[in-house]
TrEMBL record:
Pfam families named among the record's database cross-references: Glyco_hydro_1 (PF00232)
Top EC group: hydrolase
Species of provenance: Flavivirga aquatica
Superkingdom of this protein's organism: Bacteria
Gene Ontology CC: cytosol
Name of the protein this chain belongs to: Beta-glucosidase
Amino acid sequence: MNIDLPTSFNLKLEDFGDHFVWGVSTAAYQTEGAHDDDGKGPSIWDAFTLKKRTIYKNQHGEIACDFYNKFKEDILLMKSMNIKNFRFSLSWSRLIPDGLGAINPKGIDFYNQVIDFCIECDITPWVTLYHWDLPLALEQQGGWTNRTILDWFENYVKLCAQQFGDRVKHWMVLNEPMVFTGAGYFLGVHAPGKKRLKNFLPAVHHAVLCQALGGRVLRHFIPDSIIGTTFSCSQITPYSNSTKDILAAKKADALLNRLFIEPALGLGYPTDDVPVLKRIENYFISGDDQLPLFDFDFIGIQNYTREVVKHSCYVPYISAKIIKASKRNVKTTLMDWEVYPSSIYEMIKRFNSYSGIKKIIITENGAAFTDVVENGSVHDQERLDYLQAYLKQVHKAKLEGLNVDGYFAWTFTDNFEWAEGYRPRFGLVYIDFATQKRIVKSSGEWLRGFLKDQT
Ligand code: BGC
């Protein structure tokens, strides 16, 4: 195996420049718990996790990391680790239990407390509006497949902007729309568990429209805010040099890396490489060629691995399939994702090649490995190696003058990893879920030291 992992990491904070932003990322459903406390309505993830055999060991996020009750402890821990930027998401159904009607004052109060406590601790809140937990009541009306979601989303974003915009100046509209539409509305492995093109295509189009709409609403209500949105992205390598595999890789790249950014930049959907996407036009109404456009202040890119893609005539629409890392004799994480640090560099380079992008921030990067508690400590050398190897690649991009201005690790504490339940641990901080006790892992201790001279 030929892996570019560092034997030593000798970069210093200042090597990344004075204005480079360092932080950690989390998401509401994965951490908060308190799934029906204080008036919160159910989300699609509350419902999806109740269905048997959808999630590893039928686990769910009803308690998760209990961040709802332990947010002060967690933010204080963050502060003690010299982390100055905290990216978290708002739960739509905690704020508006049925998605579009009455507001839940206790939900507003909770996020006010989180935001105020961050500021008190000198931590800048970076807020994601939508990290996959749609209110169930809206899904019962078609969710992302129903165009009325534009009205529901506008109403929700307006509320968030009006309630929190006086203190929150860093916003992200959507988290990884390709994942929530692909896994949730095509493959059916994430909530709401829908399948087929007839669900996927309208969900994609409406997410593209909401991505820009959310940006416009934020800019209107908080003119001095810094507005971004985030994308999952992975370097795609053809399995062989055959024309067929190269073509398959191109198609996968269009779907996984270009589908959501290009419409926002005015480039439209990548229909040349994936002709089936032309069918999205069935969901267009007049004006829809302009509505996806928004001039984001930054683009958040989230990278974990690379994908190797091979031609396959059995895969409908794209004739391309991903070859699992476990079949390729490469170093993998617990998610069976290949450890491939230069993928993050390639993605930074790729997003730099779009002239319409003003600023790029890595809003997620991290890895799940088996963690063992020994004498009260967790020595997660593999995670530390992973983070350092990827950071070296971010630094390489910076040295070459590429635009990349921040890095948020995924994630602060271990949490609920969607369909994989609690098995994969991505945290810098270990959680014993039986007692909710936190232990800073070696990777977290390293970050604490690395960030100690932050001004
Ligand atoms: C998501 C996170 C997730 C992480 C690791 C990203 O796709 O934004 O919610 O936990 O990757 O899978």
